[in-house]
Specification:
Number of helices: 21
Largest sheet: 4 strands, mixed
Number of strands: 6
Strand order of the largest sheet: 3-4-6-5
Order of helices and strands: HHHEEHHHHHHHHHHHHHHHHEHHEEE
Strand content: under 5%
């Protein structure tokens, strides 16, 4: 007869999926080679992830960096990590160890894996005290942790931190945790260091928690309200300080395209991209919405939600701990987020129709959430969480069997999506680092240059080339006077335009390497100094050969 396992071993076995499940998800959606921190080549392809890696690269190589800011990019003004789509939190964690890192280094793969571990851990924390058995628990964790929107963010990995949304829901669902601003302060500070859109979502849940707390203390407002107001002011001050430190307070140019990346009305059941669903057809979305407005749930969850809605009428909460009634306090904030998410001002072509014209100050304020389709994420997670909790009210065996039937449907439906997303990291298996600028002469020229300027200053016109050359320059600690920033600062935009105009007028700075992109013409006075290199036109007057 086999001896029973000791309690410690049983507890270890019960939690083993917390270790295994994130690895399985990672392997299903991504290539393992992205975990090699020296494997940079797959990133420098003119993508947001390339800019993410470049920003951290600049910060870690900068001999005199600012607070989460590098002056090797967008020199001499510099640029904050937040605006290079880099990760300020990851930058702060990596900075003390920068002397140990190789010259070519990226942490994007490890960030993705860490996000999956946190995602599974918080999904488990939300469900573990309510699941009737282990089967129901882990099927619920898979369904809650692996929403398609999470993996769709591989092109912008900072926004894979959906675990911050689950963390905020975990705090909200327990009144004592929800009421304590000490825990909220930590969560909000961490979120502010990851991404501003996630901060809006977490902030909405925090505000809902404070609204509930104010109502619960309404009988004693004379004593409790001043403290609550002071704590909320403290949280807002914390956010303001972090925003100032990250450079958010600086004047930045608005994009002017709020609403162009809205969530389509059919987004929950429309995969939007051919080949993302096994069972449901993809209906083409208007330009700009197929990605930022992507909110497809997967067939498994599309079956779960109406089933839970039906069951909620016959299987109501039997205990206070099982009650979902507290979620009603999220409704006001979620209505606002949903309205922002589906807003389509201006239209997809950027035409401002007179009947929809917003006041200028309102349009500029909303520009901070111009990719508004993302804002539905917390609503989707809350709906799935509530649906799973409702199924947990069924008899244990029945709940486990239903969820065990739904989970494979979800997996089967999303298998093509997993393969498609995995293909996006295929280059990590063996790509060339500088496919656009392979000549070794770049290293020699960069070594002789005092700084580098791209003409025109808008490097999005040749982002892949920019990332390759800027990567070389940063490694050599040579400043680059341009950058692709999520929000260009007014001062930098004016400076770059002035510098481009000076070059077009035939004036060059000795020691500055000029690189022409986007079909920029060579000014006639500089024709003799211009020459081609890897299909690009460069102008370089070494300091030693400058006229006296």
């Amino acid at each position: 007869m086999t001896a029973p396992h000791p309690p410690a071993m049983r507890d270890l076995n019960a939690r083993l999926p917390l270790v295994v499940l994130p690895l399985l998800l990672f392997g299903a959606f991504f290539h393992w080679q992205i975990l090699d921190i020296t494997n940079v080549a797959w990133l420098l392809r003119g993508s947001d992830n390339g800019e993410n890696a470049l920003g951290l690269h600049g910060f870690l190589h900068d001999p005199a960096p600012g607070f989460l800011r590098t002056y090797l990019l967008n020199a001499p003004d510099g640029v904050g990590l937040l605006f290079t789509d880099s990760n300020p939190l990851l930058g702060a964690l990596a900075f003390p160890f920068r002397a140990l890192f190789p010259a070519d280094m990226q942490l994007i793969g490890w960030w993705v894996l860490a996000c999956l571990y946190c995602q599974v851990a918080f999904a488990w924390a939300l469900l573990r005290r309510h699941a009737p058995n282990a089967l129901a628990l882990w099927c619920g964790v898979i369904l809650l942790a692996a929403l398609p929107t999470l993996f769709n963010r591989i092109v912008h990995v900072n926004l894979m931190a959906h675990w911050l949304i689950l963390w905020s829901l975990w705090r909200f669902t327990h009144f004592e945790r929800s009421s304590s601003n000490k825990g909220w302060a930590i969560l909000i500070a961490v979120t502010a260091l990851v991404h501003s859109y996630l901060l809006v979502m977490v902030g909405a849940i925090w505000a809902s928690a404070m609204l509930e707390r104010a109502w619960a203390e309404r009988g004693n407002w004379q004593r409790t309200l001043p403290r609550l107001v002071a704590e909320c002011i403290g949280i807002l001050a914390l956010v303001a300080i972090i925003a100032w430190a990250l450079g958010v307070i600086e004047p930045h140019r608005a994009s002017g395209n709020y609403g162009a990346f809205a969530m389509p009305i059919d987004a929950l059941w429309n995969p939007g991209i051919d080949g993302y669903s096994t069972f449901l057809p993809a209906i083409e979305q208007r330009p700009g919405r197929g990605f930022e407005g992507f909110q497809y749930l997967g067939l498994g969850l599309l079956l779960l939600l109406p089933l839970a809605a039906i069951l909620s009428r016959w299987h109501r909460s039997s205990t206070q701990t099982d009650s979902l009634a507290r979620l009603k306090w999220l409704v006001p904030a979620f209505i606002v987020l949903t309205l922002l998410a589906i807003s389509t001002y201006p239209d997809f072509a950027g035409q401002r129709l007179p009947r929809y014209t917003l006041p200028q100050n309102v349009a500029e304020a909303l520009d901070a959430v111009r990719a508004s389709g993302r804002l539905f994420w917390p609503i989707a997670y809350t709906l799935v969480f509530a649906a799973i909790r409702i199924l947990y009210r069924l008899p244990a065996k029945r709940a486990g069997l239903i969820l065990a039937a739904i989970a494979p449907i979800q997996v089967a439906d999303l298998t093509p999506m997993a393969l498609s997303i995995r293909a996006q990291t295929a280059e990590a298996r063996g790509a060339v680092l500088y496919p656009r600028t392979p000549s070794p002469e770049w290293d020699r020229l960069i070594g002789q240059a005092t700084d580098i300027a791209f003409v025109p200053g808008d490097v999005t016109k040749g982002l892949g080339v920019f990332q390759e050359i800027a990567w070389r320059a940063v490694k050599a600690k040579v400043p680059v006077r341009n950058v692709y920033a999520a929000r260009p600062s007014d001062a930098s935009a004016v400076r770059q335009e002035a510098e481009s105009n000076e070059f077009r007028g035939g004036k060059v700075i000795p020691g500055r390497l000029y690189i022409l992109i986007d079909g920029e013409m060579i000014p006639p006075p500089l024709a003799a100094q211009a020459r081609p290199l890897d299909g690009l036109t460069i102008v370089f007057q070494p300091i030693s050969s400058s006229p006296r």
